[in-house]
# Entry
Amino acid sequence: MQSLAVLIDKVIDIYTWIVIAGAIMSWLVAFGVVNVRNQFIRIIVDVLFRLTEPVLRPIRRILPNLGGVDISPVVLLLGLFFVRSLLWEYVWPSLIR
# Structure
C-alpha cells in the first residue's frame, strides 16, 4: 500500500510541474517571447498541450468567462494539491501505525 501511495504522490508531483510548464509556455507564446516556428519549441508546446488540455478543457467549461484570463491551470493545481493533501492525511497515517 505504501508503494502505491508513493507512486500516486510522485505522479501528482510530476503532473504539477507539467501544468506549470504548460502555463508558462503558453504565456511565452502569447507574448511572442518564443518563436513557435522553431521545430523544437513547437514540439515542446505540442507535448505540453497534449498532456494538459484533456484535464483543463472540462475545467474551462465550468469556469465563467473572465475575458482573456485563463485561470483553469490555477484551479487544476489547487485540485492536485487537495488530492495530495488527502493522500497524506488518510493514507500515510495508516501506514505509520
Q: What stands out?
A: Residues 2-30 form the longest helix (29 residues).
